Amino acid sequence: MSQNTMNLKVKVWRQRNAKAQGAFVTYDVAGISDEMSFLEMMDILNERLITEGGDPVAFDHDCREGICGMCSMYINGKPHGPWQANTTCQLHMRAFKDGETIVIEPWRANSFPIVKDLTVDRSAFDRIIQAGGYISVNTGNAIDGNSLPIEKQKADDAFAAAMCIGCGACVAACKNSSAMLFLSAKVSHLALLPQGAPERKSRVLKMVAQMDKEGFGSCTNTGACEATCPKEISIANIARLNNEYLGASLSAQ
Amino acid sequence: MLDAKIPSGNLDDKWVDYKGHCKLVNPANKRKMEVIIVGTGLAGASAAASMAELGYKVKAFCFQDSPRRAHSIAAQGGINAAKNYQNDGDSIFRLFYDTIKGGDYRSREANVHRLAEVSTNIIDQCVAQGVPFAREYGGLLSNRSFGGTQVQRTFYAAGQTGQQLLIGAYQALERQVALGNVTMHTRHEMLDIVKIDGKAKGIIARNLITGELEKHFGHAVLICSGGYGNVYYLSTNAMGSNVTAAWKAHKQGAYFANPCFTQIHPTCIPVSGDHQSKLTLMSESLRNDGRIWVPKNLGETRKANDIPEADRDYFLERRYPAFGNLVPRDVASRAAKERCDANYGVGTSKQAVYLDYAAAIERYGKIEVSKQGLSNVSSEQIIALGKEVVKEKYGNLFNMYAKITGENPYEVPMRIYPAVHYTMGGLWVDYELQTTVPGLYALGESNFSDHGANRLGASALMQGLADGYFVAPYTVGNNLADEIYNAAIPTTHPAFEEATKKVADRIASLKNINGKQSAESFHKRLGKIIWNECGMSRTAAGLKQAILDLQALKKEFWSDLRIPGEINEYNPELDKANRVADFIELGELMCVDALTREESCGGHFREEYQTPEGEALRDDENFMFVSAWENKGEHEWELHKEALKYEVIKPSQRNYK
After folding, report:
1. B502-544 pLDDT, tens per residue?
2. Concatenated DSSP letters for B464-516?
3. What interface predicted TM-score (ipTM) does this complex get?
4. Under CATH, which number does the domain B265-420 receive?
């Protein structure tokens, strides 16, 4: 592997706090290796800002291996940047060309208020889970794991939905800021498994109600969420959610 | 000598007897008892959910924006349990034995046996929560093998087992939040323990959004804040993983045990340059099918695929025929280092070895051919079929490798090198997981208890959930039963005021240094010192020098640190500075511990103590104990020992040959 270095400009959204007025600020970043990760490029920018006496750019990040769901940048008009099935922390500078200007914005959605710069508040997702995104089983109540065989395909499908990392890219990508892909992934994960059956109907009703309360927009099936999802959560889950919701609403009345 | 309060009786009966005789708190009293839980990974989230289900009033804290982000989420390979679903001779005893042996006979028998006992309950609990473990076509749970064992006892969900288990615990936690039994404080960092009359009675936490210091009372405080691998700067831990909560507990009187027992994981993506901010693990499960090798000839210049079999050295298979590529982590890491130090390393840095899937792809391809009843199949077709199988088993890991390195691991062998991954050391706890401060507990990776000097793969998830779901609810309750006469203490108590002032003063003095260097730059320098002198191999001379270097680094940190921004606002640089300050102090203690332990065991390899074949040479006569360090002030610690008594297993030199 040979390393190439490049000089770039980054145009970053700066906003001191939730109430302050924000604006784009452009910075030069020089000597960036194409083997660096995107966030390592941000580290270099921040290190420079600190030593120059400036204010480093705030951004959420933690595991830097694409699984915690904490990183959340809108890069050149796409959540998590140009690569398919990818998180910002796994994006590498190979994706960019020398001399390029990279535009970096926070997730844009009313339900995700800005904390500072590129950091947003995604606690709405936790509240949606609180509304019913679980199976009500206390510790100690479980039967032997193998006493309940589950068809492999069903288990695999449930897993595919459960892979959601709760990053919020689906909301950021959606023109309506809808949280349907996130919600449908959880509803599908639990509805596909026999363990989830007892609460299947109440779960979907309560979770949808909470999603509406949080102010997320409506789904118009454009599929931007699926296209941008780092874990490739399928939009088929939204169809399943609609089905579940309809069934639950009818039988609830 | 420290007393771990291990119950008497036969090893098999200890936990059962304990549960049968421990004190209980009646439901009406539970409602009056408040429990503080710091950290929401597997240990913290499972403890918070379980304690809340029991009726305690729980307050949980995490520094991330959601409890679901905790770094347990990144665990890839799996979770062990002695289910013996494979009928391959597994049992509670065998899991117990493998764990003790894997830990190089430096863990406590009673704790490890309890861990093996509850391992089976964990799987049941997780399945009941809807954790989508991998399954066979018959609908039953699937298992795979892992390092250091000869049975298949690892349950998994592709390469994302930690994620699925954590989401299960997180959902159980959020359910209790919805029921009002848990108050969740996200983006909060614990910055001190409050002690009243010698007991832990609360914490001071900083709201990371506003910078405000908050006082929280609890009848008990559970530290579930994970390990301290980030002391090395470069590790597989998340960027935010830190020792601060555990270190504050240590400063308040909790002994810190075996800090030099750190795990270097053999299969990680190698460092690519000085810009590197973290290292990425490639799951140990890859050693199931991958073969590890380096060129046989010095100065080899050919590309990996052009090097014929005869010129390859499969050094793990050569040195350890019985376990081959599945030797424990410490053994595999040292063997890779040995080859690289002898100049057989590969890649531009020469600090890497190959992890090769060509043989596995061909083998799986042939199995598919016979499964599908194909005939006249070309070798290309076999390879294509094999790649499909490998993709299903390890696809997400291969993708991750390709993204980071820009190379295609289906076509060329992966390059891997050991990296810091886990810390066996941690807060000293007794059988009840209580530290030396009454009322203060440590669960999961933050304690030292179960893995001795080396942890086996797929055992961290097991321990985190064992502590949180099945141990702490009993043991904490046993002690809370004596607290029912004590009402909650208002946070206007002088002890809370004093602790708050202490924290505020420290933050102000950090901020007021107004120097030139960032916390990150100090962290990098700290990491280099620790990695070089207290990493994969250690020497007395190196450790002594490292202690001096760290003391100098501490001085420089406290005179030249720069924290931008203000104290009373969202300020990640301030958070980082707080953590790095604690890491520097911990680093010194690690070196002190490593220097004192004049033997090699597990992940602790002192060059002075090795067998003629280069294996770790233990000294059971003089070092069969846990080193528990009491903080005595700046640069000062007093060593307390807990003797390790092996009543059931007879320690021997570990042999994986």
Report:
1. 999 999 999 999 999 999 999 999 999 999 999 999 999 999 9
2. HHIIIIIIHHHHHHHHHGGGTTSPPPPTTSHHHHHHHHHHHHHHHHHHTT--S
3. 0.98
4. 3.90.700.10
